[in-house]
TrEMBL record:
The lineage of its organism: Bacteria, Bacillati, Bacillota, Bacilli, Bacillales. CDD domains: Sigma70_r4. GO terms for molecular function: DNA binding; sigma factor activity. One of its GO terms (biological process) is response to stress. Belongs to the sigma-70 factor family. ECF subfamily. InterPro entries: RNA_pol_sigma-70-like, RNA_pol_sigma-70_dom, RNA_pol_sigma70_ECF_CS, RNA_pol_sigma70_r2, RNA_pol_sigma70_r4_t2, RNA_pol_sigma_r2, RNA_pol_sigma_r3/r4-like, WH-like_DNA-bd_sf. It comes from the Bacteria. This is RNA polymerase sigma factor. Transmembrane segments: none annotated. It comes from Bacillus mesophilum. Residues 109-161 form the RNA polymerase sigma factor 70 region 4 type domain.
Length: 179
């Protein structure tokens, strides 16, 4: 096997992206140990197939795509799809009062509970586009969808999320803008 990148260059890739890959996987699997293992599996697979990386996308997009496949395989085996709990969000940015922090936490919890009720494709597109802030092009590459499908699915996912939040008596704009 011949890799197209030196070990030291791959180590730099790992150092730069491992925390981001871990964060993405953790959003999907909600288990620290599993996320750590799956992150390691992602980089093992990336190293093994580095010669196939053609540079058409950013290396991070390629790594996310690999990690998505690994996480989805794991979830299929576990037969579930979970989200990060509320305590893993960062709170307390400068100037926030304790009441504002509590309110923000409650809104994020409501948002996550609503997202969890959506079908898998809607959950994924919301995570990638709205939480991880990937571009339409990168999201399409990660999901193996067309850019148009990403746009349509994002729109439908957000509409479903809005309905889910309204069922709970929440205003979509308030909850999502703070989530």
């Amino acid at each position: 096997m011949v890799n197209s990148v030196s070990d030291s260059a791959f180590e730099q890739i790992y150092d730069e992206y491992s925390d981001k890959i871990y964060s993405y996987i953790f959003l999907l699997v909600h288990e620290k140990g599993a996320a750590e293992d799956l992150t390691q599996d992602t980089f093992i697979r990336a190293y093994k197939y580095m010669h196939q990386f053609n540079g058409e996308s950013h290396i991070f997009t390629w790594l996310i795509k690999i990690s998505r496949h690994i996480a989805i395989d794991y979830l299929r085996k576990k037969n579930r799809f979970l989200f990060i709990p509320i305590e893993h969000f960062q709170f307390g940015s400068q100037g926030e009062t304790p009441q504002e922090i509590i309110l923000k936490g409650e809104k994020i919890e409501v948002l996550y509970k609503a997202i969890k009720k959506l079908k898998l494709s809607y959950q994924e597109v919301i995570i990638l586009r709205k939480i991880k802030e990937f571009s339409i092009k990168d999201t399409a590459s990660i999901l193996n969808w067309s850019e148009n499908k990403v746009k349509i699915t994002t729109s439908r996912a957000l509409a479903s999320l809005k309905k889910e939040l309204e069922k709970k008596g929440e205003r979509y704009e308030e909850v999502f803008s703070n989530g």
